[in-house]
């Protein structure tokens, strides 16, 4: 059906709208291409291969962090984890923030080294200040033997709530907090 589709387009419109047509007409006018020459439009992918254009492999950009505030405590390096569906907080941080009453849960966390940890509980609807906007978030609270320098881990649900768009190449996070 689409093979039989034809349409008419004025030459000037075609030159303006189609870059390859513009280059072809420019080549005809300059004499680089003769009027009896044949030409074929090549896809962008084929063109990149034929012209030996390669993308330079980049190194590890490091960790992706976001600054948030809970109460009066600022967590300037909260780890952003696209692989986690939950937000995590160490028990010592929850205690420091004054939280001691947790919703019980029977959930167990399986870490990438296959170790399993039970958590203390869940803090529901914790008000997290991101830039100038309060965002409700649930945190799974667990006891850790050794605490990391970046105590909070923000998962996919939090990132979805704040409308995060992440540029992985530059580790830049754009938040669209008012777009909901």
Folded structure, characterized:
The chain has 180 residues and is of the alpha+beta class. It contains 5 helices and 10 strands, in the order H-H-H-E-E-E-H-E-E-E-E-E-H-E-E. It has helices at residues 11-17, 19-30, 44-50, 91-96, 156-161; strands at residues 65-70, 73-80, 87-90, 108-110, 116-118, 121-130, 133-142, 153-154, 164-167, 172-175. The strands form 3 sheets. It has a 6-stranded mixed sheet with strand order 3-7-6-1-2-8. A two-stranded antiparallel sheet has the order 4-5. Strand 1 (65-70) and strand 2 form a beta hairpin. Helix 1 packs across helix 2. The longest helix has 12 residues, at 19-30. The radius of gyration is 27 Å and the shape is elongated. The model has no long low-confidence stretch (mean pLDDT 82).
SSE arrangement:
Blueprint: H1 11-17, H2 19-30, H3 44-50, E1 65-70, E2 73-80, E3 87-90, H4 91-96, E4 108-110, E5 116-118, E6 121-130, E7 133-142, E8 153-154, H5 156-161, E9 164-167, E10 172-175
Parallel strand pairs: 2-8, 3-7
Antiparallel strand pairs: 1-2, 1-6, 4-5, 6-7, 9-10
Helix pairs in contact: 1-2
Task: Please describe the structure with a list of short key phrases separated by commas or semicolons.
six-stranded mixed sheet; 5 helices; 180 residues
What is the H/E order? HHHEEEHEEEEEHEE
Q: How many distinct beta strands?
A: 10
User: Measured on Cα atoms, how large is the radius of gyration?
Assistant: 27 Å
* Total of helices: 5
Give unreliable regions as ranges.
none
Overall form = elongated
Q: Main beta sheet, described?
A: 6 strands, mixed
Level of helix content?
10-25%
What is the rounded distance between the termini? 41 Å
Estimated structural class: alpha+beta
Instruction: Determine the strand fraction and express it as a percent band.
Output: 25-35%
- What is the overall pLDDT average? 82
Order of strands side by side in the largest beta sheet? 3-7-6-1-2-8
